[in-house]
Amino acid sequence: MTLKEIADALVEGCRTGQETANLDKLYAADATSVEAQDMPGMEREVTGLDAIRGKHAWWENAVELHEAKADGPYLHGDDRFAVNFEIDATMKDSGERSVMKEVAIYHVADGKIVREEFFY
Q1: Dist. CA 5–CA 109, nearest whole Å
Q2: What count of other Cβ atoms lies within 10 Å of the Cβ of residue 53?
Q3: With the CA atoms of 38, 39, 43 and 49 taken in that order, what torsion angle do they form, in degrees rounded to the nearest 10?
Q4: pTM for this one?
């Protein structure tokens, strides 16, 4: 897949609730995911599809999602793209509802996402 095809597929998957299903299709087996900071119950940086699936499972268990928007992708050269996210969610443990904004940078090599970094 080309950078644009990967980026478009990732954003479409986010818009249609297929984020987890897209992992096998779009991510390298040894991909790394990095959060901007430590999160309770989750490591800041994880490597490998199983670990990234674990992050997705943590998110699904930790939040009640009201709305999620994905804006982009914004291509950068031939190996990176960014996506802007806006998420309206309630943390299940605290009941606190908030609108979160973040930027994600995705690095691509050999037709797969090899690294994702989240900024918020």
Answers
A1: 13
A2: 15
A3: -120
A4: 0.93
